[in-house]
Input
Amino acid sequence: MLTYVVTLQCADAAGIVLAASTGIVALGGNIVENDQFTDPVTNEFCMRTRFETEISDLDVVRAALLQSLERFTPTLGVRLEETRRRAVVMVSHYDHCLADLLYRREQGDLPLDIAAVVSNHPTCRSLCERYGVAFHEVAADPGAKEAAEALLLDLVATENADFVVLARYMQILSAGLCEQLRGRIVNIHHSFLPGFKGARPYHQAYERGVKLIGATAHFVTSELDEGPIIEQDTVRVSHSLRPSDLVALGRDIERSVLSRAVRLLAEDRVALVGQRTVVFAP
Output
C-alpha cells in the first residue's frame, strides 16, 4: 500500500468531506488521518488527509480527487508521502539554525531534502561541505541584491525547491521576491512577535527587564516581520541573567522553533489563510 498526503482549501460548503471521501473510496483508498478547519473570518475550509491505496500513479489519484471535488473548485495538493519536500536554506554569519536543520535531516528527524544553501558570507561553507550540501556564496550588497535574488529564483526552479528557509539570513528581501514566493519563504525571527524589533533584540529585552524571551517562525512578506505566524515558543528568564545568557537561550529557542516550523511545512501541515495560518499539528 502507498500513502498519499492531500491538502485542500476552498470556500466552505456542505458536502466537501463527503466528496473527498467518495473520491478516496473510488481509488480503493483507506483514510488513516484527517484534520479539517473552517476559518471563521474568511469562511475558508482547510483539510489535510492521509490515505492508503494500491494505486501508484500520482496523476490518476489527483484526477480522481479533482473530479470528485470539482464543484467546490478547490486548491488541491496531492503528494506521495515518501516523496520528500525540498528546500533552499539561506544563512548569513550565525550557523546555529542551519546546523540544527542539517543535523536533524541527517538523523532522519526532519523529512526534508535540503537542496542547497545560499549565503552572503563564506562562514558556513565548511559546515555545508561536512554534510554534503551544495553551498552558494552570493553577495547581497546594495548594488548586487537584484542579481542575488535572480540567482535565488533560478536556484529554486533548478532544484525544484518547494520553499525557502531563512535560517538567520540577515538581509531584507525585496517586495517583488516576497510576492513571487508568497507562502513559500519561512523566516525565524529572534523575538516573540510582536516585540523588540531591529538590532540587538536580546539587549533591548534585557534593558526592559523582560521575564520571557522567545522566537517566532513566520512566512515572509514585504512588511518586515509581519508575515503569518507558523510557530512560536518562549522561555522564562530572571533578573540574574546577563545579555549573553539571553543570547544563548535565544539561540536554543530559535533552533527548535525553526525546525518545528520547517517540519510542519515538510509534512504539508500549514495552510495559509489571509494573514493567518491554519496548522494541523501532529
Notes: Residues 64 and 215 are 42 Å apart (CA to CA). Helices lie at 16-26, 58-69, 96-107, 125-131, 145-158, 175-180, 201-207, 243-266. The chain has eight helices and 13 strands.
